[in-house]
Amino acid sequence: MRENEFSPEALQGELEEINQQIINLDAKGKRGTKKYNSLWARKEQLEMLIGNHDQESEAA
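RESULT FIELD:
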């Protein structure tokens, strides 16, 4: 089994920061901008990574 590059805690922390940035952009009416969309894509990527890590932890 390979080592994960990031701990789930670090990923969760980054996800929370991104969620806050998305909320702030949304409040400013910036939904659909390039920055908003790139943050949203990173959010989905982190959620997938965290979900995969949880599945690996349960299998161990």
